[in-house]
Specification:
The chain is α+β, with helices and mostly antiparallel strands and about 750 residues long. The strands form seven sheets. Strands 3-7-1-14-11-12-13 form a seven-stranded mixed β-sheet, sandwiched between helices. Strands 9-17-16-15-10-28 form a six-stranded mixed β-sheet, with helices on both faces. A four-stranded mixed β-sheet has the order 18-23-24-27, with helices on both faces.
Amino acid sequence: MSTATGPATAVRDGVGASSTRPDGRLKVKGDFAYSSDLRAEGMVWGATLRSPHPSARIVRLDTTAALRLPGVVAVLTHDDVPGRSTYGMKVSDQPVLAADRVRYQGEPVALVAADHPETARRALALIDIAYEELPALTDPEEAVRGTGPLVHAERVDGKRGNVVRHVRIRHGDVAAARAEADVIVSGTYEVGMQDQAFLGPESGLAIPADDGGVDVYVSTQWLHDDQHQMCAALGLPPEKVRLTLSGVGGAFGGREDVSVQIHAAMLALRTGRPVKMSYNREESFYGHVHRHPARMWFEHGATREGRIVFVRARLLFDGGAYTSTSQVVIANGSYFAAGAYDVPHAEIDGFSVFTNNPPCGAMRGFGAVQSCYGVESNLDKLARELDMEPVELRIRNAMTTGTVLPTGQAVDGPAPAAELLERLRARPLPEAGEGPFGKPGGLNNTSRGEGVRRGVGYAIGVKAIGFSGGVDDRSVARVRLVLNGGEPVAEVHTAAAECGQGIVTVQTQIARTELGVERVVVLPADTSVGDAGSSSASRITWMSGGAVQGACKALRERIAELGDRRALPELLAEYGPLEAEYEYAHRRTFPIDDERGQGDAHIAFAFAAHRAVVDVDTELGLVKVVELATAQDVGRAMNPLAVEGQIEGGSAQGLGLAVMEELRVEDGRVRNPSFTDYLIPTIADMPHVPIDLLELPHPDSPYGLNGVGEPPTLSSTPAIANALRAATGLELARVPVRPEDIAAETEGR
C-alpha cells in the first residue's frame, strides 16, 4: 500500500500495461448496453420524414392525416422548432427541419412521435407533402468554377458562391525550382465517398424533466458541442439541456455532427414523454456525414538522384449540401499534401465546395487520408520515371526533426519517417497464400493461381494530432478519493466520449499510476463536468489523459498539504473524501494566414507507414491483400494491446477504401444505402497485419504519448493501391479499385 504523499513506484495495470477493458467481456458476450438498447417508462418512438430529392422546393406540407392516426402523439415541422432554426458544428447553416427547400436526398423535413415504431412509420407515410424539383448541382468541378446553380442563395457566413473554403499554401519558389528539376511527373487521382460504417446506427433517448428541461442519453463524440447546438435550437440554457453518453457502437467521425439529439429532445418537450429515436441501417446512411470524395492533381519535380525539389497540388473536396467541418477538412488535407517529406518548395491549393450530394464531414484521418493517397500515388510514378525503388525514394526524402513544412512550421518533435520505412523494408516478404482465404476469390474458389501476379507497395503518412490553427483546446477532469469497504477508491469523472477506442481504460490506468490505488471507477461521461472536447483528431488520450493526470497530481498536493504521512485508508478515514479538478491545455498554436498559408498551427505530428503485399488475378480483377505490415511511432504505448487494436482497425478501414468501400451517388441520389451493397472488409478479407510499434516520447505530451487512432488510415490505402499498380502495371488512379478496373484495363493492353 502506497502512502498518500506520492504515486506508487509500481502498480498493477497502470500506464504502459495492456490492461483489460471493462467493456470488453460485455461486448463479446452481447451484454453491453448500447444507446439503441435504452428504454424508459411511458416511452414513445420518434421517426423522421426525409426528402427523396437532392434539390427541391417544398410546395405543400400537411400533417393532418398523420396526426389523426391512432397512437400518434405529435407531428412536428419547421414551425415547431422552439429556438434557432439551424445548427452546425462550425457554421450554423443546416436546418433543424427543412422549411421551404431541401438540398440533399435524406434531409429531415418532419418528425413523428407514436406509441409504436411501426405506427410512427405509418404516420410518416400519411404526411401530405409535395415538392417542386430543382436543378441539382452534383459536379464539384462546376461548383468550384461557379457554373452550376447556387446550393445556398444566401450563406450565413456572408459569402457567395459554392466554394466553402479555398486554402492557399505558398512555400519557397516553385517556379525557380521547376526550372531546375531534372524529372517532372504529374497525375490526377480520385477518392470515392467512404462511409464510417459503424455497426451501431444513430440512436438516443430524450426524457423531459420537471424543470422544463430535457435529459438526453445519446451516442456521440462530443457531449458539450451537442449541448451547445441543442440549447440554441431548443431555446434553453445549458443547465436545462443535460447529456449523458450512452453505449457507442463505433464512431470514426460520423457522430461528431448532430443526428437524433435535437429531434428527440423536441419531441420529448412537446409530448411530455420520453422519446426514443433509433435509425435503421438505410436511414443511418442518410443521417450522418461521410468522408469527402476528392479529385486531386499532383506534380512532383526531382533531381536525377531522386531529391524532391518541389510539389504542386490541387485538391477538390466535395462537401455536399452543408458546411459541417468541410472548411477544416480541406485545410487538414492541404497542410499535408506534400506528404511526410522534406519539400523545399510547394504550391498547394485546396478547395471544398457545396453540392447537392450528401453532406460530408469528419471521418478518421480528416482530409489527410485523401491527400496522402494522392501524394503517395504520384511518388510511385516519380520512382518509376527515375527507375528507383519506391521505398528508397521515400527514405531519401523523408521528413526529419527540424524539417520545415509547407506551412512554414518546423517539426520539433520526433519525425522517424525514414526509420519506419527502413523497418518495413527489412521485413521478410510473406509466402504465397495458402488455404481457402489465401488466393484471390477466397472461398468462392474462383482462382487456383493461374494469372495471379504479386505486387508490393509502400506508403507513409503524416498528420497533425489534436486541433490546429489557434484553437484553444482544453479538457477538464475531476478526480475524487473515497473510502469504500476500508479501501481507497479513485472516482474519475470526465466528459470524454468512449467510442470503443479505450479512453475509459486509459483514465483508469492513469489514476492507478498517479495515486497508487488499485480500485478506480470511471463515472459515466456527461455534461455535469467540464468539457473534454471531441473524441476525434487523435486527441482524447492526450487531452483527457492530461486532465486526469493533472487532477491526480493536484490531489497528491492536497494530501501533502495535510502534512500526514499515514497510509491513504487512514487518511481518508479521518478527513473524508478528497477531490480535485483540473483543466488541461496544450501549448498555444496559431492560425494559418490566408495569403500564403503560413503559421505555427500544430501541436504535434504522428507518422505511420505500411507495406502491402497483394496477389491479383489479372483476368478476373480479383484481389487478395496477403499482408499489410505497418510501423508507427506512438510516442508512449499507454496500453499496448489497445494501441495495436487501433492500428489494426485503422488499417482495415484503409483496406476497405482501397478495394471495396464506396457510397455510390448518382445525380445526387445514394444507390447503395445498405450493408448488402456497401461492402466493408470481413475476416475473410483481412490479411495478417504485423505491427511494429516505435515509442519515441513526445516532449510536450502526458507520459510522452502521441495520438494513434488516425495515422493507420493514411498510409494503408495508398500502400495497397501502389501494390496493385506494381502487380498489374496499370495506372489505377482511383480508389476503391474495383475488379472491372483491373480486368478491363488488363484486357485492353
